[in-house]
Specification:
Blueprint: H1 2-8, H2 24-39, H3 44-58, E1 72-73, E2 84-85, H4 87-108
Antiparallel strand pairs: 1-2
Helix pairs in contact: 2-4, 3-4
Length: about 110
């Protein structure tokens, strides 16, 4: 019987002391890396189109730079998708698009 109790006993799992929680900086950096991998394939026209759509969303009165909760939709950001994005994700993408736009202008010189 003791053997059965041990088999079915549910012990609480203690968190490892070596786990470091993600900071806002960690999340922002990972979002920038994610969006850079996607947006670097876009032409300048697409970059400007998406940038305009993002600016319309972030200028909304209720916009928040929430880190994880996906509240915002940007039409056509990813083809045929009504996917939602966090505020932090959209701001990270905007930074990436600004950088890609500057690089494109610099490369034309």
């Amino acid at each position: 019987m003791n053997r059965l109790r041990r088999l079915f006993r549910r012990e609480k799992v203690k968190p490892s002391p070596n786990i470091i929680p993600l900071t806002e900086q960690d999340i922002d950096m990972s979002l920038r890396i994610f969006w850079t991998k996607i947006a670097r394939e876009w032409d300048i026209e697409r970059i400007r189109q998406v940038k305009t759509q993002i600016l319309a969303v972030i200028k909304q009165v209720d916009f928040e730079k929430n880190l994880l909760e996906r509240r915002y939709v940007v039409e056509g950001l990813i083809e045929e998708s009504q996917q939602r994005y966090s505020g932090a994700s959209l701001l990270a993408l905007l930074e990436v698009l600004d950088t890609l736009e500057r690089l494109s202008a610099h490369n034309k010189e």
